[in-house]
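Hi there,

I know you've been waiting on this one. I reran it after we fixed the sequence typo, so this is the corrected version. Both the input and the resulting structure follow.
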Amino acid sequence: MEQFYREGYRPPLRARLRHRLGHDKGTGPDKARGETAAELMTFPAVTIGPHSAVVYAMRLMDEHGVKRLPVVDQDGKLEGIVSRHDLIKVFVRPDADIAQEIRADVLDRSLWVDTSHVEIAVHQGVVRLTGRMERRGEAQIAARMALRVNGVVDVIDEIQWNTDDNPGWADQ
C-alpha cells in the first residue's frame, strides 16, 4: 500500500492499519491509489431531480452512502449539487421561521377558511396550535398540514372547534 504515492502523499496511519488488517470495506480498486477521477468516483452516479422532495434526497444519500447528490434535469444536464449539510439546514430551521411559514402558507393561504383565532407557538421544532376554528375537520387538516412543514418535529394540536362536521372521525 505504501508504494508509489503521487507527490509524497501517504495515507493516514488509521487508513494504513485498516488496509493491513484487511478492514477496508471499499468496492473496486483501492481508492487510496487512484490517480484519476474515474478511479475515485462512485459508480454509477446517484442523481436526483430538481423537484424531488428533501426526504427523498436524504433517503438516497443514506441508501447509497454518498454525501452529495448531483441535481440533474430531465435531459441529464447538471443543475447543481445538494449536500448533506444543505439537507440538514432544512430541518434545523429557526422556530420563528417555522411559525411564519405555518401562518403564511398553511393557515392563511392553503386552508381558505378563517384561521385568525389560531395561535402558533414553536419550540425546538415542536409546534403547538391553539385557539378555535369553525369545523373539526378544518382543525385536523391544519394540524396535519403543519406537520409537513420542513423543520417541524411534532405538532401538538389543541385547536378547538365549534362544529363537529364528521362525528365518525376518531380523535387523532
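Quick highlight: The chain has six helices and five strands.

Best,
R. S.
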